[in-house]
Write a structure and sequence with these properties.
The complex is a heterodimer of chains A (about 450) and B (about 525). Chain A has about 450 residues and is of the alpha/beta class. In chain A, the strands form three sheets. In chain A, strands 1, 2, 3, 4, 5, 12, 13 and 14 form an eight-stranded mixed β-sheet that branches. A four-stranded mixed β-sheet of chain A has the order 7-10-6-11. Chain A has a two-stranded antiparallel sheet with strand order 8-9. In chain A, helix 9 packs across helix 10 and helix 17 packs antiparallel against helix 18. The radius of gyration of chain A is 26 Å and the shape is globular. Chain B has about 525 residues and is of the alpha+beta class. Chain B has 18 helices and 15 strands. In chain B, the strands form three sheets. In chain B, strands 2, 3, 4, 5, 6, 7, 8, 9 and 10 form a nine-stranded antiparallel β-sheet that branches. Chain B has a four-stranded antiparallel β-sheet with strand order 12-13-14-15, with helices on one face. In chain B, strands 1-11 form a two-stranded antiparallel ribbon. The chains are: A alpha/beta (about 450), B alpha+beta (about 525). Chains A and B meet through helix 1, helix 2, helix 5, helix 6 and helix 11 of A and helix 1, helix 2, helix 5 and helix 6 of B.
């Protein structure tokens, strides 16, 4: 009987905890005034849970105990929680030891897949159980800020050491900064040095060389995805003067100025279409990112546009390659700049601690160098990025000099579908470039208006 | 809850007329019921307090019902199913009801938190009035754990004072000492741990001398002022800097000029999600086309898997078949491979350029390869082929099992009558099979109607349709199509709208399956007459 009651009690506790965890998600227009009593009510509940949890689930208690004991002699009892992906979590853990030794504050690093960080944070932060800091991409801003989940970040005394375009990427439409940049990422032009002795500087040359290479019996010259991908198409689009969102004077994107069927955007689709018309690309190819990479690796394709993630595979494949800037159409092609960095939870009770941690322990040469050594994406910290020796990473970083931050406004979410379909429809020859661009423009503006 | 009801049912298993046991069992039963009721009342009270009305109502109703069943002799037989039915109510009915409820709200990106949380969050924003002084602080702490700030005005070295929460500032001069009035200066290696406490405190006395430390820069403090104040009577948020009023409109505090405060909160929006569903130009123009393909896909998937599975089952039912057992096992392999592994593999095999299947087709046709992914027709063929491959083992297993139940005597009678194999199949085997397998075919139809994985992994519903107002592909089924509308391309989630769509799909599927069940009932009657 006693056992049964214990089980019952523990089940109940679990039930209550589950309900409590779901709490933030429950959409109820609760009256505002019982805020204080509600908080008081919650306390006895928690008190009632505590003994039961200790009795029924000793594992939880055991798991929590070391966390308490690990607090050092300084005995501040404070904990700063940070969610990071598998590549950067170990570095933060090492940094945490140093941080704890110096400040008496424990750094709890929780390792999560990058997509989970974003999704779990959306649920946990408003429920009050989120971390103090998350590591993520700057284009989450539109979504996370739209729900008021992020606090502005102050870069501190070393603000000038951050790459300006990376800082720009974390600046939201309200002009405030919502993240401390750590790494930047952009795509560049890869070419096979056996097939392409001198790299093309214009897209016309890309096409002419593709013709020669194809005539010489190779499968493809320049290869790109037939499954429309606005991210990989953007450098071509901008090379011909096209754009997705117009920029305001301060560099932020203007959701009202959508340029999917602007003259330049259509010209870029025209160029793409001419590659198919001339048989240099295959309309039924169903080429996705993976196939493009493997075609380059085994020499079937002589040129492509891809990112630093392609490097390892290409190096292993042993194909002779080099990396250079995106060719020009009417102007230099600008890839998107993706930025990874640290963001602070607006619901955190430790915001000042989080800010100070970032300013004094993360924004340092040693930490930024450690991140770069582990995960060789271009550092957003200028003293580290200046010292890059690897010629490939240098070349990618150089191609990123003209990069434009990927829009962090919510409207960008509506672009991927419509613009992706437009590129596919041109690639497969179902619509003319002008028709496809007009359709994308109409679809995306409808979607933005409906947001 | 589950354990509670199970325990009660355990108590009730004592025979009702077991003499000496009956008193004990009655006491146990009442005790257990009292326990459940007590716990439920407590839970319901908590939930009502936190605003979880739907769950509280369901829990209360289920408990009342359990009480009635166990206290009244009339419902004795129900006691054995009470735990099951209670769980059904809580685990199945409640989620359905909750989905209905969510479909009338705007719960989703930008409206994730409750109004209460949103108000707290907006009210926590502060601003620095233009004439305010930004002080530098040094923190002190006394043995009782109270904090004190030593404040210095960087622009006026004479403007130095200390301040603790709830007292007026005391003028000081010079550099901060190690100890003052029993307060010790916090050494730098312990300061970090105190930041959480320091930033939650207000130092001094409101309204004229209330200082807070800066939330973003260490060592700064000022008389920050609350930027927004919520007026509960009017349900508006007022900007203290400009006096602008933000009204609560559909879960967002919005100014007359249209400026919106973040975060928004979840609010009921009436039938807006349903209106959007029926008036959305995207849905209106392409719904019929998507719906038709969904039905065709579901029917064809069932038919093809069933025909192939049944054919193989009958073939392997022949006892003389060599290697029957190992071959039967091999045929199950596709069923054991998860679709999200099998589909990408098939997509690779079919790739017109690099796929081995396409290359073989090319060798036979002299170069022509079906445009598996860029042509609507061939995309559909490809999807159906993969779905058939994935699904036939299930039908194979089911039919193999059903064949064992068919009576032998009717076949002997048919043999005596000189029936051919085909006669026996179409007059005996097939009708009798349908009796057993019919309901499973309906279930299979319902599954394929929402077969998200295969469609999405094949080519994300592509190829895209030209000349449509919203991105949609030729092979999109209702599930993939509406998923994209409700959850956007990346990260935007509209749970309210998604719930409305879910309910519409549920209704459509409900109607279709009703017809199908009527049809299988007909089969059953026919089966009895064989």
């Amino acid at each position: 009987m006693r056992n049964k009651r214990l089980i019952l009690l523990s089940l109940l506790v679990i039930g209550v905890l589950v309900l409590a965890a779901c709490g933030g998600g429950q959409p109820t227009a609760a009256p505002a005034e019982p805020a204080a009593p509600a908080a008081e009510e919650a306390t006895p509940t928690a008190a009632a849970e505590a003994p039961a949890v200790e009795e029924a689930t000793p594992t939880t208690a055991a798991a929590e105990a070391p966390a308490e004991e690990a607090a050092p002699a300084a005995d501040t009892g404070a904990v700063l929680t940070i969610w990071a992906d598998g590549e950067r979590a170990p570095i933060l853990e090492k940094l945490g030891d140093e941080f704890t030794a110096q400040t008496g504050v424990k750094l709890a690093v929780v390792q999560k897949a990058i997509g989970d960080i974003r999704n779990d944070f959306k649920i946990a932060a408003p429920a009050g159980s989120g971390p103090d800091i998350i590591l993520g991409a700057h284009d989450w801003l539109g979504e996370l800020n739209g729900s008021g989940l992020l606090a502005p970040v102050d870069l501190g005394p070393n603000a000038a050491n951050f790459a300006p375009n990376a800082v720009q990427a974390y600046t939201y439409t309200d002009g405030k900064l919502y993240g401390m940049p750590q790494a930047t990422e952009n795509i560049a032009f890869y070419y096979n040095t056996d097939l392409v002795p001198t790299p093309p500087t214009t897209f016309d040359e890309v096409k002419a060389m593709s013709q020669e290479i194809k005539d010489a019996g190779n499968k493809y010259g320049f290869l790109t995805q037939t499954i429309g991908d606005p991210y990989h198409f953007y450098p071509i689009q901008t090379a011909f003067g096209g754009y997705i969102f117009g920029q305001n004077a301060d560099g932020s994107y203007n959701a009202e100025d959508l340029g999917l069927n602007s003259e330049g955007s259509v010209a870029a689709l025209e160029w793409l279409n001419s590659m198919y018309e001339d048989g240099l690309l295959d309309r039924n190819g169903n080429i996705d990112g993976d196939l493009m990479l493997s075609a380059f690796q085994n020499g079937d394709a002589a040129m492509m546009i891809s990112g630093p993630w392609a490097l390892n595979g290409i190096r292993e494949a042993g194909v002779p390659y080099a990396i250079t800037n995106i060719p020009t159409g009417t102007q230099p092609g600008a890839p998107f700049l993706g930025v990874q960095g640290f963001m602070i939870n607006a619901f955190s009770k430790n915001q000042l601690l989080a800010q100070t941690f970032l300013q004094q322990f993360v924004a340092t040469d040693a930490t930024m160098q450690a991140f770069f050594d582990e995960d060789p994406r271009a550092s957003a910290w200028i003293p580290v990025s200046e010292k890059i020796e690897d010629p490939d990473l240098k070349a990618i970083a150089e191609a990123g000099n003209v990069a434009q931050p990927m829009p962090n406004i919510p409207a960008m979410n509506s672009v991927w579908g419509g613009q992706g379909d437009a590129i596919t429809l041109v690639s497969t020859g179902k619509l003319t470039p002008q028709e496809a661009a007009d359709q994308a423009q109409a679809q995306v503006s409808t979607a933005i208006a409906g947001q | 809850m589950s354990a509670a009801t199970q325990k009660v049912s355990g108590g009730a298993q004592a025979p009702p007329d077991a003499g000496s046991h009956s008193i004990l069992s009655l006491i146990l039963r009442i005790l257990a019921l009292a326990l459940i009721d007590g716990i439920t009342i407590w839970l319901v009270y908590q939930m009502v307090f936190d605003g979880y009305w739907p769950l509280a109502a369901v829990l209360a109703l289920v408990t009342i019902w359990v009480n009635v069943v166990f206290l009244s002799g009339r419902f004795y037989p129900l006691r054995y199913v009470a735990p099951g039915l209670s769980l059904l109510a809580i685990m199945v009915l409640y989620p359905i009801l909750f989905t209905v409820y969510v479909s009338f709200t705007n719960y989703g990106t930008g409206h994730l938190v409750t109004q209460q949380l949103a108000i707290e969050q907006i009210e926590s924003q502060t601003f620095l009035p233009p004439d305010a002084t930004l002080y530098n602080w040094t923190a002190f702490k006394n043995p009782a754990g109270d904090f004190m700030l030593w404040m210095v005005n960087p622009n006026d070295p004479a403007d130095v004072f200390t301040v603790t929460p709830g007292t007026e500032p005391a003028p000081r001069s010079g550099e901060p000492p190690a100890e003052i009035d029993g307060y010790q200066q916090i050494p730098s290696n312990q300061l970090f741990g105190a930041l959480g406490a320091l930033s939650s405190l207000t130092f001094g006395v409101k309204p004229d001398n209330a200082f807070q430390v800066s939330q973003s820069v260490l060592g700064q403090a000022a008389q920050y002022e609350q930027l927004f104040v919520y007026d509960a009577a009017q349900d508006v948020m007022i900007d203290q800097q400009t006096g602008e009023v933000f009204k609560s409109i559909e879960g967002t505090f919005t100014s007359a000029a249209g400026q919106k405060l973040s975060p928004g909160f979840a609010a009921t929006v009436g039938a807006r999600n349903y209106r959007a569903l029926f008036t959305d130009p995207a849905l209106r123009s392409t719904f019929v086309q998507v719906f038709l393909w969904t039905v065709i896909f579901a029917i064809m998937s069932v038919l093809l898997t069933f025909i192939l599975g049944m054919f193989l089952a009958i073939v392997f039912d022949v006892p003389e078949m060599p290697l029957r057992a190992p071959l039967r096992s091999l045929l199950l392999i596709p069923y054991t491979i998860p679709a999200f592994v099998a589909v990408p593999v098939w997509v690779g095999l079919l790739n017109p350029q690099f796929g081995i299947i396409s290359q073989m087709i090319g060798m036979i046709t002299g170069g022509w390869v079906p445009p598996w992914f860029s042509d609507p027709f061939w995309s559909k063929i490809g999807i159906l082929a993969i779905q058939t491959w994935l699904g036939f083992p299930y039908m194979f297993v089911v039919v193999t099992g059903a064949l064992q139940t068919l009576p032998h005597d009717i076949y002997e009678a048919a043999d005596l009558d000189g029936a051919s194999a085909w006669d026996k199949f179409q007059a005996l085997t097939f009708p009798l099979l349908l009796v057993t397998v019919g309901p499973l075919l309906v279930a299979s139809f319902a599954f394929n109607f929402n077969n998200f994985v295969v469609i999405d992994l094949y080519n994300r519903g592509g190829p895209p349709m030209p000349n449509v107002p919203t991105p949609v592909g030729y092979t999109d089924i209702l599930a993939t199509y509406t998923y994209r509308i409700a959850f956007g391309a990346s990260g935007v989630s509209d749970y309210g709208y998604a719930s409305a769509i879910t309910i519409m799909i549920f209704l459509i599927l409900f109607i279709i399956t009703q017809f199908q069940f009527r049809f299988t009932n007909m089969l059953e009657e026919r089966g009895r007459n064989v």
